[in-house]
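TICKET #2291
ISSUE: user wants both folds in one file
ATTACHMENT 1:
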Amino acid sequence: QVQLVESGGGLVQPGGSLRLSCAASGSIFAIRAMGWYRQAPGKQRELVAVIARGGSTDYADSVKGRFTIYRDNAKNTVYLQMNSLKPEDTAVYYCNQEIKVNSGSYYSAYWGQGTQVTVSS
């Protein structure tokens, strides 16, 4: 059983900052990519940022230069530092981790429960 627990969302004014975290626990043999997605009301879920096991990263154009994704492999945790937040960043943010539960299994995608980020004055 694998569980992803997110934290760090909330209400922030435009221009402010938040840091999201997502910790995986349970039966974990290995973790490959980790990422953050978001879904605004009435819109499809979209990729925000992703980080490979080796540390290479990729970002949505809309967040480049403002958001930073990083990971702590010892803690099975991925973070998203969000700076210069804009009202259009308002959404539910979900973390995703590709996890193998034992040496003989394949990697499967696991999702966090989602955390609300609201950017408003």
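ATTACHMENT 2:
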Amino acid sequence: QVHLAESGGGWVQPGGSLRLSCVASGWPISQSAVAWYRQAPEKAREYIGITTDSGRTLDIPASVKGRFTISRDNAKNTVYLQMDSLTPEDTALYYCNLRQAGVIGTKGWHWGQGTQVTVSS
């Protein structure tokens, strides 16, 4: 059974940084793409990028490009989201989403419970 656990969220002042972690168990991330999403209250879920099984990072939207960086450590089965220059608009629940290689469609998609990030002064 695949399980994802996000951590690293919390409160930070505008301009600050946080690094979120997504630890996977039950499946190797080396055989997975892993995406990050966020959802603010009363807003739609927003996709904020993906790291492929080959280690490339793709699809960073303009809203976070240049401020957010996705990386992975296959030995630790962990994906990271480094967030810099945070603004109140980044306040949201952040989720990771593991996509098993070789599994067609969303059957191989797995979600964590999320970690809350709050940016305020």
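RESOLUTION: both attachments delivered.
EXTRA DETAIL ON ATTACHMENT 2: The chain has no helices and eleven strands.
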